[in-house]
Amino acid sequence: MSAHCPASRDIPRRTVESFRENGFAHVPRMLSAGEVDSFRTASLAALSAHSKSDDAGATRIISTEHVWRADGPLRELALHPRIGAFAERLAGMPLRVWRGDVLLKEPRRSARTNLHDDETFLPFEGRVSLTAWVALVDVTVERGCMTFLAGSHDRPGPDRVGLPALSADPDGYMLKYWPGLNWNTRVTVPLRAGDCTFHHGRTGHMAAANTTDEQRVSYVVALIDAEATYRPVSGVDVPGELTPGQRLPDDLYPRVGA
Ligand code: SIN
Ligand code: NI
Q1: Which of 94, 128, 228, 236 is most buried by its number of CB atoms within 10 A?
Q2: How many angstroms is it from 146 CA to the middle of ligand 2?
Q3: Measuring CA to CA, which residue among 89, 78, 129, 114 is closest to residue 233?
């Protein structure tokens, strides 16, 4: 699989500006058509081998659990040099990969993804965290593409609220604790197969249900400041035996480009 790794100068300035200003950026054609085909095949095989469904979260997303930790194409996708190069350029600092998983919304059997930010679940403390969401099929609005609250990563108010606040009001906690977000512009971003979005860990986002006749297949890669430390979040498991405040070990949390 060829993975062209762009030099910093090949990453459009407007992509970087969009990420810094809006807390998300759309990158068309992150993967080639050949890569999309082979990563989609690997994703569907991984889902049928072992997956869990998010009935509790009510999105009915079917996902793998840290599938990238096994060797194979889905590890290759999590450590894809082009994704890593974009992520570090957008973040403006060295990063580590800590998650890579397939997300599936079944045709006509899914629900919408609540408005949330990923940092609420984040078991680390760092200067930045971000997620690459890679479309492995065309993801239109009707197939459940994401909507972002532009600029919400840069909000005043509490730094974080705990998971209990989210559990008490999964769709409303962001607007409750940060009421100014009611007025942020919402941007819906359909993706063609091979496109991806990057969103900041503090950016509010949600997604529609898949009301089409075809599966919504995507892959998420989560990245964190290379200097981040472990900060336990009750109910969120992390790989490795970490103690609070510990830097993340290179073997389990590889540096981008390593
Ligand atoms: C989704 O795929 O519907 C949501 C993904 C995310 O929250 O990052
Ligand atoms: Ni999210």
Answers
A1: 228
A2: 9
A3: 129
- 114-159, pLDDT tens digit by residue? 999 999 999 999 999 999 999 999 999 999 999 999 999 999 988 9
Q: Ligand 1 atom closest to Cα of 216?
A: 2
User: Within a domain: residue 234?
Assistant: no
Which residue type, as a one-letter code, is found at position 206?
M
Number of domains the chain contains: 1
Q: Say how many Å lie between the CA of residue 103 and the centre of ligand 1.
A: 8
Give this prediction's pTM: 0.95
Q: Which ligand is nearest to the CA of 220?
A: 1
Nearest alpha-carbon partner for 46 in 99, 107, 103: 103
Counting ligand 1 atoms within 8 A of each CB, the residue from 43, 64, 113, 171 with the most, and so the one to mutate, is 113
Give me the count of residues in the chain: 258
pLDDT digits (tens, 9 = 90+) for 212-242: 999 999 999 999 999 999 999 988 888 888 9
